[in-house]
Every structure is written in structure tokens, then in C-alpha cells.
Design brief:
The chain contains 18 helices and 9 strands. By secondary structure, it is α/β, with parallel strands linked by helices. The chain starts with a helix and ends with a helix.
């Protein structure tokens, strides 16, 4: 309470006292009484202020003591996710929230390596030098399996069960960091699905309906081409984009098991399913991809589509911000829709998921410095990821928030809720040597520079030469 307010109250009280005293006392006594009362009140206020200051100092001392009781923990996080991407920003947000709400003595050194091949080589160098980072991005590939088997990274199942965190994540993004034998190698940073984006006006002009099967998809491409439009934008430099078209066939007809078995040499690219997939890619590449696709990079393919130069573009919802009206030219506003993976013409597909669902390279934890404080951070991460990612991307957590409230975003989110599992990918499951080869050869296949048979034989030969030694190490 301010001094002037206390004095005002004291004067009022003193006036009452003097009135009562006036029945049998002189006026001089009244003045002395009032003066003494004010002096006493000011002394009381000073005592109160001193006590308040002492209490504040004690509180600060107690707070400092509480902070000193929190464990010192500095974690190193090596990442290939760019500082502009939602996954990077989300991690920064989580760390700040943890420092403010749980442990001010916690810190994280985030080290960004721009080029993915350089990043992967850096991780392998650190592991080989017994300097495995506390945290790093890791796909659930054969290398990740080796790190799990050797105890270099932590199987997070025990932590998820210990703190009851498993049900906090959606099945699809959590599954992206899960091995075939159900070991949890990494935690998701976000939730993405891959879809076909399409130009509504071009579809209308060419009298094309949303294709439901692979045959209908090829028919749509032909109609669009005949109407004067480039049917598909794709990046050949980022050859995984073309590998996705190979996967669209092998997955529908053989499920994930086809790819698992192919990687181990138990299945052949020269099989009926493999040849069907290679034929599909070559037909698209020689007739329906944009001119110069082999030298087009990721950004170029994206801009080609959003600039209104192609009717379709297959990419994940990490590109959703570029599909929104506020990022588009006037003639493209409201002109972008999407559809899910086509299926087979007859009967039930072996692979039933209608989209690739994943998380940008999820986060694994090194075993060397994995301790109780790391687990406490993981628990906080699981419970607060939706808040940290709000406005940036789709959350991997149950009942997560949307990055925005547009109709396109809401529609995507509804489809996301139907994801029940993960479609495994060529560029993750194959041994490194075959992965490098198939990436180059699939571009040659799409260009028509090699035949379907040549492509299949080269892939099978690489697997025969490299898979056995790689997977048995």
C-alpha cells in the first residue's frame, strides 16, 4: 500500500479518536495523539516494506536454490533440417519452453549441416569416433538398425511405456520411426502425408476427373497432354521424387514386403511386379513429365507447378504453405486441389494405405549420455509438441493443432486421420550402393535411355553384389 494512502487512513482514524477523546480531553492532547499515530503508522509501513523486501530476497534465494537443484544438462543436436523449416523451429520452441517451465539449467547446442549426404557422412564419422551426438535425425533405414543392434542409439520403447507417452502420438508419424520388428528408433518432429496436387482449371479444361486407379491416372495424363498441358512436374535431380512413382506400383501389388524382400535379395526387380513398376515410370517419363525434368531441382519442380505450368505435382504436405492462396499468383488462387494415391484396377490391393505418411527425419537419441534428464525432456516433448509446432506444421500428436485454418488445410487434416501405417521407401530400405545406383538408373529409365529390362537387371545385380555383406555386418 502506498504511503499517502496509509497516511490518509491514519488521519481519518485519528479524527475519530480525537472526537471520542474530546468528551473529556483538551485540544492539545488531540493534536499530539494524531501526530503520534501518524508517526507510528509510518514506522509500521517502513517495517512492512522491510519485511516485504526481506521476503522477496528470501524468495529469490529459494528460487536460486531451486534452480541449483535442477540438473545441469547440455545436449548436442546435429540436424539436416534447415533453420527455416518447421522441424528446426519447433525444436527451438520446445527447448525454450522446457527451460522456462522445467529446468533453467538445460541447454541444447543445435548444429545444422546443410547437405544431406554431407550430414549423413558427418553422423557416420561421429559414430565411428565414439562421439555420437545426444540427438540427431535418423531415418529407419539399415544403418539405423545397425546402430540399434550395436547399442549406439536408444530403443525408445521403454521410455514411451515408462511415461505413458505412446498414445500421445498419432500412429502414422510415430510409426515412421519404428523398425519392422517394432523397435522405436526415433521420435517424430511433425506429421506429413504425400499427395498429388493438381490444377483444377486444367483438369476442367481437359475434362479430367480425379483418377482412382493407375489406368485412370495414365488416361488423365493423356487427356491433359492432348489439351496442350504438361501433365506432371517432377524433379530429376532429387531422384527420390521419381522413385515414388516406382513405389506406387510395387506397394499396391506387393505391399512393404516386396521392398523388404527386394532389399535383402529375396525378391527381384525382374519379377512381374518390378517390371510393371518400371514400365509405369518409363511411360510417365517419356510422355508426361515436363521437358528437362532430369536437370530440374526440387525448387524448380515446385515453382513449375505452382506457377501454372503443369497439371500435377506429387509432393508432401511440407510444401502445403506454397499451395495456399496467399503464396500464389492471382490466376492460381483457389486453383489447387489434391488427390490420394491411385490403386489397382481390379480386386483388393496388397498395400492398402492411400498415401505415404511420415515425419521429416525423426529424432534419435545417442545411448552414451542418455539419462533421467534426457527422459524428462522426452516426456515434456511428447506432451508439448503440439503447442511448440502450432502455426508451423501438422502436429504428430493426438488432437494436435492445424498450421492454419484454410479449407485446403482442413481437408488434408481429415485425410490424415485415416492413416494407419507407413509405406516404406526405396531410398531408405536399400543398401547404400544400390540406393545410389537406383537413383541414377531410375532417371535414365524415365528418360528412355535404358530399357525396362536393363533397369531391372542392374538393380538386381547391385543387390546381389552388395546387400548380403551390408545386411550381415
Amino acid at each position: 500500500m502506498k504511503k499517502r494512502n496509509i497516511i490518509a487512513i491514519c488521519v481519518t482514524v485519528a479524527t475519530v479518536i480525537s472526537a471520542l477523546a474530546g468528551c473529556g480531553s483538551s485540544g492539545s492532547k488531540e493534536i499530539n495523539t494524531q501526530s503520534e499515530y501518524v508517526e507510528q503508522s509510518e514506522q509500521t509501513e517502513n517495517d512492512m516494506e522491510n519485511t516485504s523486501q526481506e521476503s522477496a530476497e528470501q524468495g529469490e534465494t529459494q528460487s536460486s536454490a531451486a534452480e541449483s537443484n535442477q540438473p545441469e544438462k547440455k545436449m548436442t543436436y546435429v540436424t539436416c533440417i534447415t533453420p527455416q523449416q518447421s522441424g528446426y523451429i519447433t525444436m527451438e520452441n520446445i527447448v525454450k519452453m522446457y527451460q522456462e517451465q522445467v529446468n533453467p539449467n538445460f541447454s541444447m547446442d543445435i548444429q545444422y549441416i546443410a547437405d544431406k549426404p554431407a550430414y549423413l557422412q558427418k553422423i557416420k564419422t561421429l559414430v565411428a569416433s565414439n562421439e555420437t551426438p545426444d540427438m540427431f535425425n535418423l531415418d529407419t533405414d539399415p544403418y539405423a538398425i545397425k546402430l540399434l543392434d550395436q547399442g549406439i542409439v536408444v530403443d525408445l520403447n521403454d521410455t514411451l511405456d515408462k511415461y505413458g507417452l505412446r498414445d500421445m502420438f498419432l500412429a502414422a508419424p510415430l510409426g515412421w520411426g519404428t523398425t519392422k520388428d517394432d523397435r522405436q528408433v526415433a521420435l517424430p518432429l511433425d506429421f506429413s502425408i504425400e499427395v498429388f496436387w493438381y490444377n483444377k482449371q486444367m483438369f476442367e479444361d481437359a475434362n479430367v476427373s480425379i483418377p482412382k486407379t493407375h489406368a485412370e491416372f495414365l488416361e488423365a495424363c493423356e487427356k491433359l497432354k492432348n489439351a496442350g498441358y504438361t501433365p506432371i512436374a517432377v524433379s530429376g535431380k532429387d531422384n527420390w521424387e521419381i522413385l515414388r512413382y516406382l513405389l506406387m506400383i510395387t506397394y499396391r501389388y506387393g505391399g512393404n514386403d516386396f521392398l523388404y524382400d527386394l532389399a535383402q535379395g529375396k525378391q527381384k526387380m525382374e519379377s512381374e511386379i518390378g517390371k510393371k513398376a518400371a514400365t509405369f515410370v518409363q511411360e510417365l517419363g517419356t510422355q508426361y513429365f515436363q521437358s528437362g525434368f532430369a536437370s530440374t531441382d526440387y525448387t524448380g519442380a515446385s515453382n513449375y507447378f505452382t506457377g501454372g505450368n503443369a497439371a500435377m505435382y506429387y509432393i508432401g504436405t511440407w510444401d502445403l504453405p506454397f499451395m495456399q492462396d496467399d503464396q500464389l499468383s492471382e490466376d492460381m488462387k483457389g486453383n489447387i486441389g489434391y488427390f490420394l494415391l491411385p490403386t489397382i484396377e481390379e480386386g483388393e490391393p496388397v498395400g492398402k494405405s492411400n498415401f505415404v505418411s511420415n515425419s521429416v527425419m525423426p529424432v534419435a537419441f545417442g545411448a552414451d549420455k542418455f539419462d533421467e534428464e534426457t527422459e524428462r525432456f522426452i516426456e515434456f516433448y511428447a506432451k508439448n509438441i503440439s503447442e511448440a509446432i502450432s502455426g508451423l506444421a501438422f502436429s504428430p500428436a493426438v488432437n494436435g493443432t492445424l498450421p492454419n485454418e484454410t479449407d485446403l488445410t482442413k481437408s488434408i487434416y481429415e485425410d490424415m486421420q485415416n492413416s494407419t501405417g507407413s509405406i516404406k521407401l526405396f531410398d531408405i530400405e536399400l543398401d547404400p550402393a544400390t540406393n545410389e545406383l537406383i537413383g541414377k538408373e531410375v532417371v535414365s529409365l524415365a528418360l528412355g535411355d535404358i530399357t525396362v529390362d536393363e533397369f531391372c537387371k542392374r538393380v538386381d545385380a547391385s543387390i546381389a553384389e552388395n546387400a548380403s555383406s551390408y545386411f550381415s555386418e
